[in-house]
Amino acid sequence: MLWSLAPLLLGGATLWLLGWFYWESAVDGTRAALEHWSLLQALLDWLDGRGLQALRSVLAPLIVVALMVPVVVLGSLLLVATLMTPAIVERVAARRFPALQRRQGAGWLHGLVRTLVATATAVVALVLTVPLWLVPPLVLVLPPLIWGWLTAHLLAFDVLASHASADERQLLLRRQRLPLLAMGLACGFLGAVPSLVWTLGAAVLVLAPLLVLVSLWLYLVVFALAAAWFAHYLLAELQAMRASVPMRAMANPQPALTAPP
Prior knowledge:
By secondary structure, the protein is an all-alpha fold. It has a domain at 69-242. It has 9 helices and no strands. It has helices spanning 5-35, 38-49, 54-96, 108-129, 136-139, 142-160, 166-175, 177-191, 208-251. Helix 6 crosses helix 9 (208-251) and helix 8 packs antiparallel against helix 9. It is elongated, with a radius of gyration of 24 Å.
């Protein structure tokens, strides 16, 4: 499992370095775009007239943070799903299910296509729901729901890719659809906890690059624990499903064929 930490940490460091070096330029570009937006400029002038000039200085950083957090969450989930989940599954299988047969029901190309389609669907859902984020309760609900769905979709497939056959995987995912979705939503809302640090006030924006690093580490930890949770649950369900097949066959034996007279 240790071998997977190097590319995982490298990917996390890359995300953080991109945020560190491009933070100022992103804020400046967002501020310039806002100044050329006539409707928003009128709103800012109205706020200035009522002594709320401080909002003008923090609006651009807040918009950058709001757009950056989903990217960091999705990047963390994809890093864990592609680089760490296989190692976690191997470790869980070796410790708890050493006799569980590997039936290789999905290849890497199938997994790649499924990951790309699911990620694109989540990105489209995030973009379409951005206007609803302006409603205070929904900004705390909609993104975690989307992240939770994507977590369940990716991790459930990755856990079963090497151990279950295609038929077993489809049957198990269909039977356990609601429990897996509940697990994904729980992980999605738990993954949203680091984002709450941005609600502490405008002062935290000064430490934004450092807070992005802390948030990235927390996201990686949350999704790594989610991968272990899915591995323990699904491999146990797969083993139980295989064990029940011969029992049902013994309970309902086929009638013996008799030779014709």
